[in-house]
Write a structure and sequence with these properties.
Radius of gyration: 22 Å
Number of helices: 15
Helix content: 25-40%
Number of strands: 11
Number of domains: 2
Distance between the termini: 58 Å
Largest sheet: 4 strands, antiparallel
Oligomer: single chain
Order of helices and strands: HEHHEHEHEHEEEHEEHHEHEHHHHH
Strand content: 5-15%
Structural class: alpha+beta
Shape: elongated
């Protein structure tokens, strides 16, 4: 068997190993990202990244895999479903007393689990090929254009909401990659963009965060505002945020393709501590020790206790007015820093406001 035949056999074997490790799909691409590199530079030039300055760092390593890991010839892209069953995201979003947490974050942090599985797959490849293959696994942990690589590998197309969509699985999945110097045969078929005339994800966004189809202005995105942003949340976005305290899934929840989404089979991705269906007030009353204990091994830990309270205060300000909420806000205020206190003051003003205003969607002034 010559080298080309052996690599072909390996490419046919990889999906079987990936399935055994819990991955839902796998594909193989080359490393040419010239088009996405131009798009990224244009996006950064408009400052759509906000405080996420790391998106513009590392030179061209993000769009040139061989500069990130010298010798890279192929990227093996994989996806793993994360949507927990029976978590009813729409029902929670419609209940102003509940805290909405993005469904990827209600269980354990996905990074360690997927990285471990990718490492196991890389080892199997090495054992098959009989030598080192310069492999390195990535899970949203390095400058990698994972959605673009996954699209090249046939795992879907990038939708108007800028997420990867698969015609048989929607978008509720994580992505991971293995860079390798093996010149594996490429996935032959890619998926054509099937968004068509649909505008659902663009229209549902509470903060009108899409400057155009396929272009997200992160500075207006609720996921950015509640997770990445340090400091005060701009007042204009607080009411539209509603009860979303960590991330936002609106553009996924409304996408017609997600009727084909598959529930996760991974126990680590199932909700812990009732985080998929908790009262805002219950979470706001957590002490810092409770927060640290109950977010151990969770994506929620990265926001820190202060921003946790900041986000919950916004949610409470948008909740139906109640004496219990007002009392909790007043009790917590002396214990917090100036930034959180300002959000509590905003929430108190909202709670005590006679005749609550209806939630409104705010327009994006950057749209042409």
């Amino acid at each position: 068997m010559n080298e080309a035949q052996r690599l072909q056999q390996l490419a046919e074997q990889i999906p079987e190993w990936a399935a055994e490790l819990g991955f839902a799909a796998v594909g193989i691409s080359d490393t040419d990202l010239a088009g996405p590199e131009r798009d990224l530079k244009a996006w950064l030039a408009k400052d759509y990244q906000g405080q996420m300055q790391w998106l513009g760092e590392h030179g061209n390593k993000r769009s040139r895999p061989a500069e990130l890991l010298p010798g890279t010839r192929r990227v093996i892209s994989l996806r793993m479903n994360y949507l927990p069953p029976d978590t009813e995201p729409i029902k929670v979003l419609k209940d102003s007393s509940k805290a909405y947490i993005s469904r990827y974050a209600t269980g354990r942090d996905y990074h360690k689990l997927i990285r471990k599985r990718l490492a196991q797959l890389a080892t199997r490849i090495e054992q098959f090929i009989g030598r080192e293959h310069g492999a390195r696994a990535f899970v949203d942990s390095a400058p990698v254009m994972e959605r673009q690589l996954a699209a090249k590998a046939g795992l879907g197309w990038i939708g108007k909401h800028s997420l990867l969509l698969d015609r048989e699985a929607g978008s509720w999945f994580f992505l991971g990659e293995i860079f390798t110097n093996l010149e594996l045969p490429l996935t032959e078929q890619t998926q054509a963009n099937q968004c068509g005339d649909c505008q659902a994800c663009l229209q549902v966004c509470p903060t009108d965060a899409f400057a155009a189809p396929y272009v997200l202005d992160a500075r207006r995105c609720i996921s950015y505002l509640t997770i990445e942003l340090d400091g005060p949340i701009p007042i204009e976005f607080r009411e539209p945020i509603g009860n979303r305290v960590f991330g936002c899934d609106d553009c996924q929840a409304i996408c017609p393709w997600n009727k084909y989404a598959h529930y996760t089979k991974e126990q680590d991705f199932l909700p812990r501590h009732q985080l998929h269906d908790s009262k805002l007030l219950d979470l706001f009353n957590w002490s810092e020790r409770e927060f640290l204990d109950k977010t151990a091994g969770s994506p929620l830990r990265r926001m820190g206790y202060a921003n946790w309270l900041r986000n919950l205060a916004v949610g409470l300000g948008n909740a139906e007015a109640s004496a219990e909420i007002i009392a909790a806000l007043q009790q917590k205020r002396p214990e917090v820093d100036a930034n959180v206190a300002e959000h509590i003051d905003w929430a108190l003003a909202r709670q005590q406001q006679p005749g609550r205003r209806r939630k409104r969607k705010i327009k994006n002034p950057d749209k042409s």
